[in-house]
Amino acid sequence: MAIKVFVFLPDGVGLRNFAYTNFNTLGQQLGMDVVYWNNSVFPLQEQLGLEEVKIEPNSVHKLTPVYSRARKRIELNLWHKEFDDLVYQTYKFPFEYSNFKKATRSFLTRFLIAKHNSERGLAAIKKRIDKLERQNPKYEYCKKQLEKYKPDLILCTSQRSTQAISALLAAKDLGILTATFIYSWDNVPKAMLVVDTDYYFVWSDLMKAEMLKYYSFLKDHQVIVTGTPQFEPHFNPDLIIPKAKFFADYRLDESKRYICFSGDDTTTSPLDQYYLEDLAIAVQNLNKEGYNLGIIFRKAPVDHTGRYQEIIEKYKQEITEIAPAWKAMGKQWNTILPEPYDFSLLATVCEHSELVVNICSSMVFDFAIHNKPCIYINYEQPQLKKGIRDIGQNYNYVHFRSMPSKNAVAWANSKQSLQASLENLIAKPEPIVAQAQIWFTVVAGKHPKTSSLAIWETIKNILN
Fold first, then answer.
1. CATH code for the part of the protein at 234-444
2. Residue 34's pLDDT is what?
3. Is the fold of 3-60+136-227+448-463 the same as that of 234-444?
4. What would the pLDDT profile of 290-344 be if each residue is shown by its tens digit?
5. What is d(CA 247, CA 343) in angstroms, rounded to the nearest whole number?
6. Percent of the chain with pLDDT strictly greater than 90
7. Are 122 and 157 in contact (CB under 8 A)?
8. Which of 29, 153, 155, 319 is the most buried (most CB within 10 A)?
9. Strand, coil or helix: what is 210?
10. Rounded CA gap, 16 and 3, in Å?
């Protein structure tokens, strides 16, 4: 009898890694019965022909978000104290009081933190979350599904969603093995471990060390290095659109060399549009010196603010926007979901650009795979005022300490040095690319081409 694995999508963020890649096909080739336990709004069977079991009730207990926010802040407080490092305080989002509902949640969260701001208190908060989610009707609903389909193991595709808690508790209470994948390179030190599972699949030795450092209750054998499927499509030459077709489809000028500006979300870079303008001015200046450059602008997929439009129109001779192939399927940020074509689009932009410019994005790794360098912008805009977040704090985050050399990227520490960095990288990209590729291996592991296979082999080993 085939091993039955439920690939659990608590929301849409796992689609890219586990539904759009060849992850499903690899599992089937290894003799697995692969079923997607789908809590997202994306219709997997209809759109991709994947076998799915839909989870219909999509609500958590009304108090779970409050307790979950308190859990995160208490963990960050404890790590601040244990490691004597103020960086953990910078991971906290401000409390909101703009309406009665938000104010009530904020006051309740602050009360819970004040009452439970200790290791013992943290354990009580976690216990309370589990109790609330077992009372949630979704728990019984998921339990009945599991009793009906009897999976041997559940792989949760993201560790950070409260939507996953009740479903995984139901599995735990039925004695079904569970594993979760740590979704992003910065998630561990940001206290984003929301679920409790038997095993944790991580990108690299670095991430494993972080998991064991921050969560001392974990045993070494529970945290397994598998790599991440996130970068696998870059290694598939069939996904790269030929240059002539790509340039024709997106009205790019084949005589120009293009620089990609990769946009950030409004939290990471609230004044991002002005950095795009600075790049456009630098390109204008270089073109006057005989360079023939253009800009491909790829915004953050979850950014629907329209804040760049004035800049794009003002510098339309320099900037061509190529929007990510993502689609809004709901009102929340985690229902803005990628379409399968975006893998090809992103890999093609990387392949046919000279370099990427952004603020602290993991796009440095996407471009490094294509032997292209990255410029990190690191200066304030004059529009910065009280209440607007300075981008500089981003580079103090723990995940940037993984950089083996500060030369893994070129730094633009002023508007003037942005232009100089462009000139230097266009002339000699190789030293920066070499360091970026070393950093990529540190963060993503040694086998980025075969991570999906490594995950399936790990599942097979666990069940055997």
1. 3.40.50.2000
2. 98
3. yes
4. 999 999 999 998 888 999 999 999 999 999 999 999 887 666 655 677 788 999 9
5. 17
6. 89
7. no
8. 155
9. helix
10. 24
- DSSP-derived pairing of the beta strands 336-338 and 326-328: antiparallel
Distances (CA, A) of 281 to 136, 249, 276, 310, 397: 55, 26, 9, 14, 30
- The amino acid sitting at 280 is A
25-40, pLDDT tens digit by residue? 999 999 999 999 999 9
CATH number for the region 3-60+136-227+448-463 comes to: 3.40.50.2000
Alpha-carbon distance of 185 to 160, in angstroms, equals 13
Query: Which amino acid, one-letter code, is at 445?
Result: G
- pLDDT at position 374 over 70: yes
116, 162, 197, 398 from 60: Cα distances, Å:
22, 7, 18, 30
Amino acid at 288: K
pTM: 0.95
Partners of 224 in the β-ladder: 201
Residue 335: per-residue pLDDT: 64
Which pLDDT belongs to residue 333? 56
Distances (CA, A) of 97 to 63, 105, 106, 386: 17, 9, 7, 18
> Cα angle at 161 between 160 and 166, to 5 degrees?
125
